[in-house]
Amino acid sequence: MEERDKDSTEVSLKMEQVLYEVKRVVVGQDHFLERVLVAMLAGGHLLVEGVPGLAKTLTVKTLANTVRGSFHRIQFTPDLVPADLVGTRIYNQKTGEFAVSLGPVFSNLLLADEINRAPAKVQSALLEVMQERQVTIAGVTHKLPAPFLVMATQNPIETEGTYPLPEAQVDRFMMKVLVDYPSEEEEFVIVNRVTSDLPEVGAVTSTEQLVHLQKMCRDCYVDPALVHYAVRLVAATRRPDHYRVPNLSKYLQAGASPRASIHLVEGARALALLRGRTHVRPEDVTDIVPDVLRHRLSLTYEAMADAVTPDQIIHRIMKHIPAPERMLETHVKLDANA
């Protein structure tokens, strides 16, 4: 038990150091930064929705520096082709042979800027990258470096010239985070910081250490009652009447997949470790539910007509399916010693 507590303290302190370095450059956006760290620990991908100019690119680039990782940014445009993303074979006239030129996806942190501006072929190419963490070029498979995190952004305002993301690709993202404008005080600090010399970010960990922290994250204890709670929440998005959530079926065309249940548990584990614990509490699950589910719900036209949002549906489901109050004996002992 003492060894596990020591491990959780190590993870928490290391992530605090990473967050401290990032906060030297990025102002505010606490919820967004916490979710980025959760995705890093859990090994998931992040979909970020927010207007331009909210430090999304700066955040990922700064994170890459803190973990001594490689960073690439791809500006998605309608004329992008899969080869621009994953790479291609190039003919060498001097040798008379083909050489493989790997694309920008071969990095630890990949920022897919305005991902919904790319056509379906490019989005399909990214699908294999996100799920399999490998790229196939001319029949040869190339493994991506570990760790690997895709953070994709999309603009909620502009819809002209955009392509809706396929359901299969949206489901690959562990979370969808909504980034809002900074407060007046935060924007004052942003202006002062950007108009002067930005501090240099120090590397506080390495990609090898991050892979080790990800393995430790999977050892975080999750009570079966909490796993069942996560499964019930996700199942309620598919059959709300079965779980006695009234007046919701008319708004839901399709619910979340089993991948949502998996990501709820994995995200809660990472959140618990960030908070210095080796076990998951109910609040770790409830805190992350909206981010994991909001992009997985397909709403009907009636929901759009009534201005019903995915977040409103999620909160109604959580209100009718409360978190478990009683844990197994092991969890109770862990909670008492925390």
Automatic annotation (TrEMBL):
SUPFAM superfamilies membership: P-loop containing nucleoside triphosphate hydrolases
Domain annotation ChlI/MoxR AAA lid: ranges: 250-317
Xref: Gene3D superfamilies: Magnesium chelatase subunit I, C-Terminal domain, P-loop containing nucleotide triphosphate hydrolases
Domain of life: Bacteria
Domain ATPase AAA-3: 45-175
InterPro entries: ATPase_AAA-3, CbbQ/NirQ/NorQ/GpvN, ChlI/MoxR_AAA_lid, P-loop_NTPase
CDD domains per the UniProt record, alphabetical: AAA
Pfam family, one: AAA_lid_2
Record-given protein name: MoxR-like ATPase
Gene name tied to this protein: moxR
